[in-house]
Amino acid sequence: MLNWHELIYKIAKVESIIRKELKKIFKKDVGRAAGLLRLHFHDCFVQGCDSSVLLDGSAGGPKIVHKQCGRVVSCSDIVAIAARDSVFLTGLDYDVLLGRRDGVNFARVNQTFVDLVGPDANTTTILVKLARKKLDATDAVALSGSHTIGIGHTTSFTDRLYPTQDPTMDKTFAKSLKRTCPKPDTRNTTFLDIRSPNKFDNNFHDQDGELNVLTGKQGEIRANCSARNSDNKLLVYVAEEEMDHLLK
Ligand code: HEM
User: Fold this and answer.
1) How far apart are alpha carbons 234 and 248 in whole angstroms?
2) Between the CA of residue 110 and those of 52, 74, 125, what are the distances in Å?
């Protein structure tokens, strides 16, 4: 068993490893920051921040973290830290509480449609869906601020332009979107924030990352973020061996 001192030291190390890795990754492709932030949102909105979003059986890491620190933080915490660092490395900082456990239940496809908000949602739908997560209109505005980084695909907005332009749309905005999407079947992307596409410069707060988190026996700390421990006995064994080795 780790004592508090060792645990805090190891968690600080996990955070520094993640930040260092992300710095390298974003140097090559800053667009990954937006992807990681959105991943955290999609994780949290469907059955809480339990990293069920990663359960695809693809045998992903987190190899470096486990190798150097053991299995001290959950995949859900790693997703939350990566989202926070994506915001930090593009412009703003916020505190993230740790201690989430990884979920042992897959998210059902139907549930993702219930919980997530599609690109065609109007304000009412957005507010109704957020209210289910105990978020109000002020939260909706703050969370929308996350679109200060990243890109949108024409498939997300083509229906508002063709066959007839949505009359509620700002005309100048619609005109500029039509330059990106001149025909209904155009495959293209546009920056969500055209003035500073890779800079996190809006108001944003972190409550997203605290939605329905699992604690204690409600969850686990996965040895492999893309598979439940019960599906992955050998990996758990290897990770625990490594951890024991580290603590010797
Ligand atoms: C609640 C209502 C929301 C709606 C309707 C919404 C909708 C969308 C849409 C349509 C896109 C473009 C997807 C594409 O065409 O590829 C997008 C991208 C994005 N969203 Fe949201 N979103 C919402 C909330 C959030 C929240 C809460 C966050 C973060 C906390 C977030 C973070 C992002 C980011 C970072 C991107 C860019 C992704 C990338 O570049 O890879 N969104 N969102």
Assistant:
1) 21
2) 14, 26, 17
Backbone phi, psi, residue 143, to 5°: -65, -35
Please state, in angstroms and rounded to a whole number, the distance separating the CA atoms of residues 248 and 182: 63
Candidate of 26, 39, 41, 200 to mutate for ligand 1, largest count of ligand atoms within 8 Å of Cβ: 41
Q: Contact, 96 vs 42, CB < 8 A?
A: no
pLDDT at 206: 52
CB neighbourhood size of 222 (10 A): 29
147 is catalytic: no
Helix (H, G, I), strand (E, B) or coil at 102: strand
Indicate the SS3 state at residue 145: helix
Q: 60 and 169 in contact (C-beta within 8 Å)?
A: no
Q: Measured in angstroms, how far is the CA atom of residue 5 from the centroid of ligand 1? A: 38
Residue 142 to residue 154: CA distance in whole angstroms:
24
> If you average pLDDT over residues 197-208, what whole number do you get?
71
Q: Which of 5, 42, 66, 245 is catalytic?
A: 42
Q: Residue 245: pLDDT above 70?
A: no
Question: Nearest 5°: phi and psi at 92?
Answer: -135, 160
Contacts of 9 (CB under 8 A, 6+ apart): none
Atom 2 of ligand 1, nearest CA residue: 117
Rounded to two decimals, the pTM is 0.90
For atom 33 of ligand 1, the residue with the nearest CA is: 38
CA angle 225-210-133, nearest 5°? 110
